Glycoside hydrolase family 1 protein (Pseudolactococcus laudensis), 476 residues
Amino acid sequence: MIFPKGFLWGGATAANQLEGAYNVDGKGLSVSDAMPGGKIRWGILNSEDFDWSIDETKYTYPNHKGIDHYHRYKEDIALFAEMGFKCYRFSIAWTRIFPQGDELEPNEKGLMFYDNLIDECLKYGIEPVITISHYEMPLHLAKEYGGWKNRKLVDFYENFASVVLTRFHQKVKYWMTFNEINSACEIPALSQGMVGATGGSDKQNVFQAWHHQFVASSLAVKIGHELNPNLKIGCMIVYATTYSFDSNPINQLAAMQYNQAFNYFCTDVQVRGEYPAYTARLFKENGVQPLEMAEGDLALLKAYPVDYIGFSYYMSGVQNITSEDSETVEGNILGGVKNPFLEASDWGWQIDPMGLRLALNELYGRYQVPLFIVENGLGAYDTVEADGTISDDYRIDYLAKHITAMANAIKDGVDLMGYTPWGCIDLVSASTGEMAKRYGFIYVEKHDDGSGDLSRRRKKSFDWYKTVIATNGEKL
């Protein structure tokens, strides 16, 4: 047996991408509710004149309805249980608990929803894995406070984390503080709630916001461990295995420095509890002056590092700074130079299972803390055949190769906790706000034009993944 007994097989989603019911039972607006749908999403978020205003005369907002998981969660959890999930990674919508973000008292209806969702998981023996904040900062905090560059958000997040950890710690063992915290390297709108109009283009603000998030993360670890020392509270990053384009030392150095800036900076602070040795160089390269820090911040980071590293892995990247005519490709958060040895998905993301084995070895070798792959999957166009079946062999092939890479990494000595493929049920894509970009084992009858009755049906990959879990990864 390669995968250890108790390995956490499951699936992953995010509240803002599937719940819908964006204004139900006291929920406030989040930044995701203000993100337009479609392939124009990144361009709008990265423009200097976008100010978080919602304009339904110009744009669509698919996150408002999602796949209506808010009202259909029992049906969805039952399907996850049918596949044999050992765990289910989901997030708590901050605005269901604190609609504006700066209230003192929580919204009880929001807490009750997650009480019921957690209980539904536990009914089937499914371990909840909760992300406290997953790209859904209250819109009020983004517009009125300017996002995470404002120190006041530490207090608001601490209150939020304290409420949900206190409420659910007896039912939920596994937590993560922020989703893909390092994504702010490229798009601070997602994890930091900052756009060009509110200073998101200024790296000074990005690094200051990270410091505030690091402090907030450590406060969440402190709260959780004081409630129950056995809680496991992790960080969560995007990880993109990064290669040099060739053996030119200039590109080799560029790959190393990219790894430090993108893959390692946030985990160096959150896992090791201190800013890394290369921080001064990183600040200088980005024109960042010394950060504002409160007394006791650094001691807090050191005293309360995370327990494990959760990460998403979809693709790898290539660094080439010696040539300007390299072919480029799209990617998760970041695109880059095309790797001629790899195939790509329908959306241009380079498929690299071997890169996952490298990622696992690199992360475990650097930190020696347990790892948890909490996102991995293939966004693709799925076709419903005349008989109602969906034969997504391309997804099975993608996942099987990545699970094989995981097994090899475990043989290499990596401590891997679990695996939750992304979008175990079709949902709204974070990168493009589309339904057409499907990841799930479960097909949801909803389309980008708004049509569809939201009915669920099993894809071919549903039964395949059921077998993978039943055999603990032995049968792919």
